[in-house]
Amino acid sequence: MSSSTAITNIATLVTNDPSLGDNSPLGLIQDAALVIDGERVVWAGESSKAPATDNHLDAGGKAVLPGFVDSHSHLVFAGDRTAEFNARMSGRAYSAGGIRTTVAATRAASDAELEANLARHLAEALRQGTTTMETKSGYGLTVEDESRALRLAAAHTDEVTYLGAHIVAPELAEDPAAYVALVTGEMLDACAPHARWIDVFCEKGAFGADQARAILTAGRAKGLHPRVHANQLSYGPGVQLAVELDAASADHCTHLTDADVDALAGGNTVATLLPGAEFSTRAEWPDARRLLDAGVTVALSTDCNPGSSYTSSVPFCVALAVRDMGMTPDEAVWAATAGGAAALRRTDVGRLGPGARADLVLLDAPSHVHLAYRPGVPLVGEVWRSGVRVA
Ligand code: NIG
Ligand code: FE
């Protein structure tokens, strides 16, 4: 039998439900209480109006917000790419070529090694407030290695993405058509049972529009829903293709034409921005302001991977987005919670209204704005998932 708990004395509660709070997108409530019953939130409002409950916890004037929803990461890998990072910070450019280094290390790793690495990174993210985390394959690129990556990932998260189309497998580099046939054929058959999503790195040096369309369409026929790595390194067709196929998300969106922005504004595809990648590759920032002003739904995620963005910290991404991408602190916190949920087409997470899963973060600060105001400071005090304190 479940029992109810009231968390009271919350200085600022972020509900992401405008009607519960101040009518802003964050649905802010000052001097608030939150009531949890079992795995779910059952009530949110002003402390003075809180209903009677079995248990009571005094938040001591902290801010409470929904657990972060990180809708883009690549956590099934072995090895790291310290040398590549060092070289890049000494002036060498980033290219998709480094992915091969991780493919070689991942293929050589045992299941136990891969799973330990995955679990370690998920735990690291959880300690920083991430309660829902998507993760992808993409460092195997054989039928066996891709399907094992997804099988391992599915043991740890519901949000699993098949990214056989990360780059053309090195052994088929001279025959990309054969690799696309594999990704849409035998590899898809082996991977689809373990995944919810299919993703393609649609970029020069990876896959073009026609290849990406064929791959995403084949995935959809097997019950996988599309998402796209789009317009990261240069202008290209990825964003338009994502909207055309009603992908849940177009990820990166660093190089956008006005037509790309219009397409996103007119469709149901979220623009997921990944500032850890621009930080770690010293690239130009995506222009969040331009997207928000056009009415596009924006999510913020880490892209945690050993090559282009080796951070699992959503708070770090929030701070970067506010400092360098034109987002207000409120917009960045929304994008890292409700935005991530939208990018995963989820309505049970990323908010703290009645019926939501009780996934939440207690900050060692009175307001969510401190996530950007105090960059680099470990402000995540407690993390709860499904009504249970987990960090
Ligand atoms: O999202 N863009 C492609 N994939 C990753 C990079 C992966 C890597 O460099 O290993 C990304 O940035
Ligand atoms: Fe990525």
UniProtKB/TrEMBL annotation:
NCBIfam families: hutI. GO terms for molecular function: imidazolonepropionase activity; iron ion binding; zinc ion binding. N-formimidoyl-L-glutamate binds at Y139, N305, G307. The gene is hutI. Its EC number is 3.5.2.7. Zn(2+) binds at H72, H74, H229, D303. Residues 64-365 form the Amidohydrolase-related domain. Its main location: cytoplasm. Pathway: Amino-acid degradation; L-histidine degradation into L-glutamate; N-formimidoyl-L-glutamate from L-histidine: step 3/3. Binds 1 zinc or iron ion per subunit. This is Imidazolonepropionase. It is found in: Cytoplasm. Pfam families: Amidohydro_1 (PF01979). The keyword Cytoplasm applies. 4-imidazolone-5-propanoate binds at R81, Y139, H166, Q232, S308. Catalyzes the hydrolytic cleavage of the carbon-nitrogen bond in imidazolone-5-propanoate to yield N-formimidoyl-L-glutamate. It is the third step in the universal histidine degradation pathway. It is an enzyme of class 3 (hydrolase). The keyword Zinc applies. Fe(3+) binds at H72, H74, H229, D303. Signal peptide: none annotated. Belongs to the metallo-dependent hydrolases superfamily. HutI family.
